[in-house]
Amino acid sequence: MLHQLDRLLTIVVTATLTSAVWIVAGGTIMQQANFASGGEAPQSAANASRGVQQSDRQLAGRSVMAPARGATLVVPVVGKTAADLTDTFTQARGGGTRVHDAIDVMAAEGTPIIAAAPGRIEKLFTSKAGGLTIYVRSLDQRTIYYYAHLRDYAPGLREGQTVTAGQRLGSVGHTGNADPAGPHLHFAVLQTHPGSKWSEPATAINPYPLLGGK
After folding, report:
1. Segment 45-58, tens digit of pLDDT
2. Does a structural domain hold residue 187?
3. Is residue 88 part of a domain?
4. Were 148 and a residue from 54, 89, 115, 130 both cysteine, which residue would form a disulfide, CB within 3.0 to 4.6 Å?
5. pLDDT digit string (tens) for 97-122?
6. Same domain, 202 and 118
7. Total number of domains constituting the chain
8. How far apart (Å, rounded) are the C-alpha atoms in residues 182 and 120?
């Protein structure tokens, strides 16, 4: 009787171990079959982390972004922070005939340009000096954000469109009177009043501290 119980116990243990092996092997086979048929491959923790980082890069310029601490505006060039900015607001231009009234955010050609603040695109305009430009009016209609020297506009960008902070507007370029050797975004903040046109004179205010520069 004891011998029969030993045999029965051996059979039960063997069957349990065999089932476990087949479950693990079957799971691996199903994952490989899913990947071969166009499904998602199993990811390691490192791969998953890289996937999140890639998604973050893809979303850059398309989702609402908050200004950095101490700033009221988002730095309008992807990958740039307040530490990368130089205050050129009062620098002379035109051989000393005028003041810059803006800052230049230096970046590689093609770097995404994003909205510094929410607003409505009032004008897409090409000028001799500014090249490809964008005028975005704030939601309270009292401020115009001016972006110049763009290489191109973001696909589908149009006048009358509402944009959020961080939404892609275009790419850094050197159109207009910008030096091809130094592509950059010319960014200005203009204080105006409701009902004024985008082309009417407005009061320039320094964007540097608004972007967190000190």
Report:
1. 334 334 333 433 44
2. yes
3. yes
4. 130
5. 677 788 999 999 999 999 999 999 99
6. yes
7. 2
8. 29
